[in-house]
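Protocol step 4 of 6: structure prediction from sequence.
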Amino acid sequence: DSGSGHHSQRQSDTMLTKMAAMLGGLVKAIKWLVLACFILIVILLSIWVFAPDEDLRPEVRQLLEQKPVVATEHNAYFHLLGFESLTQDPHKAGLHANTALQHDVWPLGQESVDRFEKLIGGRLPDILNSTMWRICSDTSQNCIARAQADRASILLREQEFAEYLRRYHALQKFPDYEESHPTIAYLRLTNLMAASHLRDSRIALDLGNQAMEEQALHQLMDEINFWQKLSRKANSLMTRMVFTSLLNHKYRLVSEFLAHKPQAARHHADLLKQLTKPLSMDFANVRRMLDGEFVFYAATVRALQTHHSAVNWYENPVGWLNAKLFK
């Protein structure tokens, strides 16, 4: 019994020794595999980082290097960029900021925002919040009827926010629109939207007055034509969505006038026929938006590359690597 016990113990020790040897070999194999993968990754990254930049296809280069077509003095974009400037000339302020920021990076922090505000000469207070400038919410049944009940408040807000309305009307006097990259990232459109809705509230108020109906419909026609033009010209998803949203609200007034004042609608049939004319297929222009988004992000990457290009690897290895990756 004692001999068989020792024999069993020896077999057990032998099995444990073999298992330990197998585990040791497996761990060693895993270590070599990890090391090999690490070396392979380093080699691939080195090839990627130090390889010469790939030449752009001619059509892509043409897209990236296209020059502005619209003359600066005719371009509503600069007025939009400086819309909230404390100066009396938003267009001039926006043009100055656009020139200064052409090679700037995407505004990632408060420092970029502060710099932009300084370039446009300070910013007007953001006072047109949602509780003050909407005459009706998305769930309201009738904006025109709501405007009649809110007449005193609308007239008061027109006086209080006259400077915003002045800038809004001045924006519509520019004959063309062309966005600039990458400064479009600095656009703040809240107060523009507020001014547009405030304008709509006055049009809705006048649509409820028989003596003012025709004039209000002509003003609505001007609004729709202008925002159609800007929506067609916009080549970024952000501005296209905002412009189309403003345009939809103006079409809503046309729809409500047709639905709730059918007798008056028949009297203005020719004008309403123009207001309800279907949009042409070129309005969507998805290709233009896709090209615009590509140019915008390409401009941002180029700005980041320029931003990191002066960094030395021994002073800032992370910044140096970023410069290589953004190549």
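Step 5 (inspection) to follow. The mean pLDDT is 82.
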